[in-house]
Amino acid sequence: MALSATLYAAPGDTTWVQANIVQLNNYNNFDTAVVFPNGSTSYRKILMVFTLGEYACAAGTQYCHQWDYTVTNYVMTKTDTLELSRFITPYANTGTPRFPSTWKQHYMYDVTDFYTLLKDTATIRIFYSGYSGGFTANVKFAFIEGTPQRNVLGVDPLWRGAFSYGNSADPIINHVPAKSLTAPVGTQSAEMKFTVTGHGSDNTTQCCEFASHNYSVLLNSSSIAQKAIWRTDCGLNELYAQGGTWIYNRGNWCPGDAVHTNSHPLPAVTANTTYSLGVTFDPYTTTGNYGDYALEGHVFYYGNFNHAVDASLDDIISPSNFEDHYRENPSSNSPVVRVHNSGSSTINSITFSYNVKDSVVTQYTWNGTLLSQQDTNIALAPLNTLTNMSLGAANGTYIFNAKITAVNGGADEDSTNNKFSSNFVAAPTWPTAFSITLNTNTEGINFIGPGDQSETTWQITDMNNNVLASRLIDSTSMTYVDTVILPSFGFYKLSITDAGCDGLHWWVWDQNPSYGVTAGSFIVKKLGTGATIPMKGYVYSGTFNNDFGCGFSQYFTTGGVATNIHTLSLKDNGPAIIAFPNPAQDNINITISGVQSAKGQLELIDGQGRSVLQQKASGVNNVISLNGLSNGVYTILYTDPKVSQIQTRMFIVK
Fold it and tell me: Are residues 616 and 491 part of one domain?
């Protein structure tokens, strides 16, 4: 990844500061003394970039870079120690597609509010909680010159530590006593930043890693916010597939992902306000083993906003090669950007200009409501260049540029945060006709529904979200072969959803046959040749290494007709096919209804996507001999150029 293309593209100077470069070889603190800028320069944003990688452990080492360990990063001065960020290492099993020996994962954190501590000399500490080695760490800071959203006037540490939860003899509330605080001179607003993750397991509910509980924020003894200590999206992790139990939801963390810090505004806390601040947790008591909550809290005090109208272009979700947007790319022809309201006023419209480098610039105006300090993802108008590139011969890496040119119909007060660029690879080109074979597995860990209904479904949509093909109802432990015919020169999205969030082949089911869960697969093949069409994020290896969790998406374009099929539309009216008996043995009877005469072409496609028989329809009633065909699932194609229709029907030979 080229950081210069995926980080914030500042027109001013950016100063890079190197911190830790270490091997995380065991449970320990890894400290590095760092010389930061002297504080004489104003920075609009300060980013911490933690690059995680791997090194080869000694022969026979168990769990080398193959476990979910907590990594916590601190800044330490002579008077203060504050947590900057936290993430969990992935199950980086060697040999899986996402984890070759050269893999890197970048974790980026906005640490602008810590500028009062990131000056002159300080120590950056990595606390690695792992009991095996194998990971490498490289920490850098990017100081981007400009005016920040607000000036930080002070920071008050609150609580830090890991404390047992559910122990009636020592309740967690004993370790997070309410704090009496006073806001410094000039304070216009204040926010509590709170990071908490659940670890360990008791004998009752597997708390705190695998049980959801809440905490509440108390301002002057009154609750002002409540938050669940829980993540429900681990099966949608951008870093997939992993080994281990990466798909399980957990206590505010997912393996391989950054931990979320919650921000809680403190109403009416302004200059010289004296107040009390505390947290409480859901009542909970257990016996025996105790899990714990690892937590850290601070209060930040801010001055006035430095701008009234200020939209900040903070990220390009797609098109992008950045690994934190792996599931969203290669993308459609509609770019998606993330925007932050850095000003004090509500934003109602933003005008963008954007293009692929060295191509025509497109303009788009978004209209909506974006309150102060809020973020939103905005889908821009389609960019034809993205489609055209995919249809061309080049499939290399390109550069996408985006820029905010107006806010609320006028000039943005701060233009230094209005530009962003990303590296990307164009979506692939697929044939207009292909087969999809879905081998369904049995129900997974999170599925709730009818006893024999499969949890895995798929659909293909165009860029207007019109469904062109789908299999939304199916059964467990079955094979389905569907033929898809799409219009030429279009942009499409194939989406696969797994209600159990265990994909089609998860290693846990392999190692525990008593669960009775069989593996499945999903294969796309060209008609006629039977060649497999590759997809990003899912490879037909037949092993759990390619499990996709809750699902995945594949964007693609079509660039021409793959077979001798002359029609390119799928509709519910027009000809319809009835095939019987099903299953069939010697012959299959095919009735073509909905037409006065049937003079088109009948074709049989096997489960590998190969054309195994072709003959002209003899009328509305036809009989096809199955002699010489192997047992399996076949698809009937009926094509008739005169009515511009293609119809399909599946049957089984046994």
Answer: no
Residues 19 and 141 in one domain: yes
Tell me how many domains the chain contains.
5
Query: Are 521 and 441 in contact, with CB atoms under 8 Å apart?
Result: no
Are both 43 and 170 inside the same structural domain? no
Report how far apart, in Å, the C-alpha atoms of 19 and of each of 82, 108, 115, 140 are.
Answer: 16, 14, 15, 5
Residue type, 215: Y
Residues in the chain, overall count: 654
Residues 616-652 have pLDDT tens digits of: 888 888 899 998 888 887 888 887 766 545 566 767 7
When pLDDT is averaged across residues 305-317 and rounded to a whole number, the result is: 97
What's the predicted TM-score (pTM) here?
A: 0.84
End of a domain among 409, 426, 443? 426
- The CA-CA-CA angle for residues 398, 399, 401, to 5°, reads 150
Residue 440 has pLDDT above 70, yes or no: yes
**Both 447 and 554 in a single domain?**
yes
155 with 239: CB under 8 angstroms? no
- Indicate if 154 and 301 belong to the same structural domain: yes
Residue 444 contacts residue 501 (beta carbons within 8 Å): yes
pLDDT tens per residue, range 367-414: 999 999 999 999 999 987 887 665 443 457 899 999 999 999 999 999
CB 293 within 8 A of CB 229: yes
Domain boundary among 503, 529, 558: 558
Structural domain span for residue 435: 430-558
Is 112 in a helix, a strand, or coil? helix
pLDDT of residue 93: 86
- Which stretches of 111-254 are assigned E, i.e. beta strand? 121-128, 135-145, 150-165, 179-182, 189-199, 214-219, 222-228
Q: Is residue 625 part of a domain?
A: yes
Instruction: Count Cβ atoms below 10 Å from residue 293 Cβ, excluding itself.
Output: 25
- How many Å apart are CA 424 and CA 401, to the nearest integer? 11
- At 36, list the tokens: 């930061």
Q: Residue 479 pLDDT more than 50?
A: yes
